[in-house]
What we know:
Structural class: alpha+beta
Shape: globular
Radius of gyration: 15 Å
Bound molecules: zinc ion
Oligomer: single chain
Number of domains: 1
Strand content: 15-25%
Largest sheet: 2 strands, antiparallel
Distance between the termini: 27 Å
Mean pLDDT: 87
Number of strands: 4
Amino acid sequence: MTHLVLQHNPDACTGPCGLCGQPVILSQGLQLFLVDKRRPVCSCCGRTAAPALAALVGLACAAERVAKIGQHTVSPPLSALLELARAAENYTGTSPCPLRVGERGV
Ligand SMILES: [Zn+2]
């Protein structure tokens, strides 16, 4: 079983993907890494090996973009909000046991 972790890095990261060996460039912020080898993982391999973590990275990136836009405008553009909603939907879709409205996870 492949164990991946999320790591917050203030700098971009480059190197071969720890799973497929293809060159990968990870932008600053949340990044997927192999636990044991401490090597970056490309988004394609991340979606296959750990779909929830990969979707969480996408959600965090979308939220960061919307927050940056929101700093300069009263309301972010609809396209940015739709991108954020799509990323949130992707993340919740990866949950093995999605919560229903009104249900609490205990
Ligand atoms: Zn890969």
